[in-house]
# Entry
Amino acid sequence: MASGVIVAVVGATGAAGQTTLRSSRMRKFPVRELRCFASERSVGKTVTFAGEAVPIRRVEPVEFKGVEVAICSAGSAQSREYVPMIARAGAVVVDKSNAWRMDPTVPLVVPEINPHAVRQHRGIIASPNCTTIVTVMPLKPLHDAGRLRRVVATSYQAVSGAGVNGIEELRAQTLAWARGESVEPRHFAHPIAFNLIPAIDAFGADGYTGEELKLINEARKILELPDLLVAPTTVRVPVFTCHSIAVNAETEEKITADRARELFARFPGLRVWDDPAEQRYPMPVDVEGQDDCVVGRVRDDLSHPRALNFWVVGDQLRKGAATNAVQIAELVLRT
# Structure
């Protein structure tokens, strides 16, 4: 850590925070000094970065003096409290919670899609919801080529999107099933092992969940399409890591399936795995641990002359959270 900038990571002991540390190391982010923060019960413990033990500090203003970039992986309530304080201390804060995403003064950034938005920040930059990131990555090249009109997106979301409790729930229920024991839900409303739950969080009066509304609002903001029609459905599935989304995208100009594959293959951060004859298509077990989002099952919509169907999978802890935040921090240093 001899050269570079002073970096803070808030929520460093959680899954997203740990992945942020790994992503920063892998991408060789120029860290001169790292300061790590977590909940009160973690203060005094250590995390490892670049082979060194870094102590967990208490979140208080004096600890952020001199910090140039902070990546916040805390919950929304904590972020509303911490982020303004950290920004006032002089850092540019990249926040991964839902707290600031729809604030009109805060850029919501996916670096491959709207890097220019970073220049508008006032000390806070938001990183989108993990499902939104995976979904909009292939939508951007389609929009640039044919102008998006309507998107139908059904997401199949891994239990790690619910944190360590979600992971433990799937593991414990699977083991209980294998032993012939009853499967009891604790974290989720219903059993998740060998089951699908068509709800990620609470339902609103209109029948949509908060996770579904995030996809609508965030996609519009990132793509700078305030009137884009988006029809979302979110499903929790018994998969540990990686979110998968079945997408139907309608454009003003016809884009063939072959042309879409070319557009996807050329877009940074996307890869195409699409050879159904060889049983080759993206699956969570293959995409886990990767930063790229992977697209397959690209085909013309038989019901609409200007629509496509495709399937996209992304590791929601990597590109869906940690890597996207580190990429934003890289943009900050370049602007």
In short: Residues 111 and 328 are 6 Å apart (CA to CA). The mean pLDDT is 96. Helices lie at 15-26, 76-88, 130-146, 164-178, 210-223, 257-266, 284-287, 318-334.
